[in-house]
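Incident log, structure service

09:12 report received: a user says their structure output differs between two submissions of the same chain.
09:20 pulled the input from the user's history:
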Amino acid sequence: MVRLLRYGTIFGPLKDRWRYLYKSDLYKRRIEAGPEPERFRSSLINWNYDAELYACTHRFGEKMNIESLRNAMTDVSFLNQIIKQRTEAGLAATDQTTLSFTHNEELAKRGKQIAENFLRRALQYWYPKFPREGIDAVTKFLISESTIAYISSKLGFKTLIRCDVPSPRPTMLQNALFAFIGAIDENNNQSRAELFVADFILTHLVGKDMNEIWHVKNPMGLLTTVLEENGRQAPESRLIWATGVSSVLSTYVVGVYSNKEFLGKSAGATISLAEEMAARDALRRFAHSSEGPEPAYHHVISGYKIYKHENEPFRLKYNNKSLNEFQLAYETWGKLNAKKNNAVLIFTGLSASSHAKSHDENPRAGWWEKFVGPNLGIDTNHFFVICCNHLGGCYGSTGPSSKNPKTNKPYGASFPMLSVEDFVRAQFHLIRHLGIEKLHASIGSSLGGMCSILSGLLYPDNVGRVASISSCIAPYPTAIALRYLQRKMIMTDPNWEHGHYYDKGVYPLDGMRIAREIGTLTYRSGPEWLERFGLRRFNDTIQLTPTFEIESYLQYQGLTFAKKYDPNSLLYISKAMDLFNLTEGYETPSDALSKIRCPVLVLGSQTDILFPIWQQKQLAEELIKSGNPSITFFELNSIFGHDTFLLDVNGVSTALKGFLEISALSIEEETQT
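09:34 re-ran on a clean worker, output below:
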């Protein structure tokens, strides 16, 4: 052994080889040994249960008697275990002289009743037109064992519960949370307990479609009943259009009307399926219930401002090309202060518009509605917020669908190739136009995260802070392959016409639809699909056309998006994402990132398959290696995959708020008149 080590010292590769073998052997032994046996938390050295209970009350801001909380966290199995031990020791089972606690079943019943009553009232208040059966179904979902056990675990009750097993079972977790609510009522009042329910249970509906939680067996029949109860005529369905009728990819779009009034529409592989989905859509619209967690990127009809670049050619990165002129659509919120040092620039994802937040000129909800605004994550009481539609987009900015000034016809595929660097440089032209010398921060998610990091690299003296959400140093092969398949679907559609379909009366609908279906899979996660759809079927007939609810969902998403975004914009911008590489021209990533001297926030989701969490860790680690001392990394535990940045209000918004406002005191509050 000594000899081998001596040779390994001389010959580096040999040393590495033996180190690898040694580590492999250790790993093999660990696998054979299996996981360490679970231990009770009370077996840990210096464990102080009362201290943990006190910390729990402090964490939730609840004034609560420790004895009451101890009872709330004591499962009946723990009490039975104590009684058994006392009996074996020769003490009477009923002798309670030394027991200063009881189990939590009574508190749990009390808490469950409070939660159920409050949730039902809250849902009826917010959705007065939602059918009673639906309210009951959603309430049942929110107080179910699986939901409450999940929330209880996330709140940290798992380590506080006293029971007869090291790891509490779901029923124990459920009882503990309900008992905690009961204890709040016991120590304070019912209003305080209901506030806890609103904060931690009702919010579990965020990002979920109530109509998917409530599995309506006969949506058309229910719609008929609802309309009759409201004095409306029975619904009738009409075929709006169909495509691919003679193929297995057939799609029918059906609308539902009542006395010529449009109620809803949807698509399906068969007319009957389309009718059913259209009835569901009509119920959503009628009850004003959630349309689901999908972002409303297309809500940019009007209300944006235009920046025009005309004075000099805008040099592009690739192929020695330039644009003699271009325009950017942008929107702003908040007020720019006198020093102009409170500006925050939001870089969007691939297909987003500039409409991140509603405002007077466009009151429709934006795609980051719950993240931007007074007292929200990006607080418009403090910051002047700017958001642009990317160069190459189709929501007001110059892109392939814009007219070429030389030909007065749409660019189509003659539009020059773009890069992420071009997106950033174009938007910094706007920043200078607004008279802003230095941004307080740049923020971006997905493609926007790439832009945000690049802004700190290209303009180190003009960016005060950088936030990157679900981004990367460079895309990995799987992500490139998935975007390639999306582009291929569009470009192989005969109606694409080599990118010049604008004036020919055709549109690559099928290609765009399938491309979006592929994209939807990459934006979400397996755990979410399992929770939302499972293996539920909407059609018991065995056939080649869609059978499962998730198939119908993907088809619906593909079709509804297909005409809301320009296919050529998708081609150009997605290709720019694939070509992005921060290490280009540098020996190592840390060399490239060394130019970023400002504080950086890196966020990622554990379930992201498009920009995996390891890419966020890599970005944070390379920033640290580059010598930047102000790097913050957050790993979010969310089931929403890549779209976590759109849906996890608590995780993402809280992290952004803290990061942005660390230096907010240095910003002059005087606003520009």
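09:41 both user submissions now match this output. Likely a transient worker issue. Closing.
09:42 reviewer note: The chain is about 45% helix and 10% strand. Confidence is low (pLDDT under 50) at residues 1-11, 291-300, 668-673.
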